[in-house]
Hints:
alpha/beta
Amino acid sequence: MKRYSSIALLFSLITQLSFANSVSDKGELLLVGGGLKTCSSMAIKNCEFNNLEEKTQLKTGKQTSYYQINQKTINLFKKYWPEDFSKTNQQAIFNILQTINKQEKDHLWSKAKLKSLFKKYDEEKIIRKLNDAQYYFLLDALEQPVINENTEKRLTESVNLSRSSNTFSTEIYHQFITLAQQNSGKKRPRILVVTASARDPFEAVDFYQTVFTQAGGDTRWLPLDATLNALIQQTGERQQVCQQLSATRLKVQGSFHREYVYPDLVDIQYQACLSPESIFTAIEKADGIFINGGDQSLTLKAFIKNDGSDNRALTMIKEKLAKNSLVVGGTSAGTAVMSGGLFNNNQVAMITNGQSNTAIVRGAKKNVLPMEGCQKSNSCQQNVLNDDLTYNASGGLGLFTWGILDTHFSERGRQGRLAQLAIDTNTHFAFGVDESTALLVSNINSTKPRFEIVGQSGVFIVENKVDNLTKNSVLTHYLTRGDTLTFSNDQLSIKYISWKKPINEPAKLPENIDDIFYRNRYQQSAELLCRTNNVLISGESHWQNIDTQIIIKKQENAKSNFGTFNVNGSVFSYCSYQNYLMSFSKE
């Protein structure tokens, strides 16, 4: 698609505002769309340093993971390769590893170097065709602990939150701490970080503990994940049950040999397995709980019993929310998992997978989930493709009952998949949160909850009103920084922040936007419509040999407000709108 230059504006409202750390209403949920770009030793690219000393100091932390190919790791790979994985692949990879071991020196390799070795010696491209479960098992078998030479202990990831180049990401972390402070009345509220969304639940523990500590919290890691939850439910002598941690982790989360790479964190989880009451005591004392990104289906498995009902941890969280004694936040999968419960007597689903172009052709698929990379390995089951739109019909944690939640939204062109899921599940509302952006929900125990957009970008809202709309169409709204909305009798009431004003500039729009769901192309197209007096913009989406026409059209009651916002000398522009019809039809 051709990039179109910004439309010359008739007026510009530049408002000098500082980031406010206070909110007028009590907030209970902070739902982040992912993409929080934070300065750390593992992500130096997200940093802006004042001097070389700061950069040098940060680099003393863990900067990358390391891998080793020698007879020990090769034998480990061969011995523990899961029985339900392809034996043919096992033998082929074993041969590749043996060749590398003979041809290359026994070094610690970065992931980038490891991939280059695979590319060099894997002439049949076997490794490239592995599904994700097989590929990550291979990496886990080869991964080595990173040791601090001075202490001879595991080297941890360092964080310097104050030097993060993305101010909005930093703002969101501080916002969460502020909400917990307001709720608890404590200067340093007790924060629990949950890493259950990750295939490897230990990888991001250091990061989240440090970032929320630097933001002002008394932060601890809650080692509850799908593996620990499964073992908590088992009866029998605790020590004997907990000896199954490693085997269960591989089976449930596809994570292998973690006790070798993260021995201290695995021991913390082992102690929690021996004494599950420690998990519940920690939740009882918590003022805030924040859930990481990854896979929302894994997160859900940490909080429900084998029969699908809430486990004790989730029950306690809901009880504390009902008493206004807890703030809950999440990012990416940690946000998507929040949806669930009943709205207008309809079960709210949890989205689990999918791309927009595939979704609007093949529709949503209920209670199935493709294995990542299954098309590469020809292992897809139940006619479910990698990019198919799938959902859990029973919903997620049920902390957000007003509609479906989606994340990484505008950046990944997810408007089509969210609209299709709302239509297929007869869901009234659905919310897509952009990266480095959060939907702050307050007054969740009242009949009139309040929603506010904080952070960098916006939240896309699907309103699936079946009356007076054509087939395969939904009303859409896009609210940006500072805008608020409330529910009253299941009706939205939207209020734009004061520094955004109506805009209606004449301009000629492109006749057609090709591949409209590619990255942020839909959002850019809708903003062109938002800033001008045009009524309609059209585009196309493609899946295999099927083309779908996408129409974005202003309704008679449509409104558009525009404004600019100054952050540390950089100007950000925002165009919010409501009552735009999105429709799609196959050609």
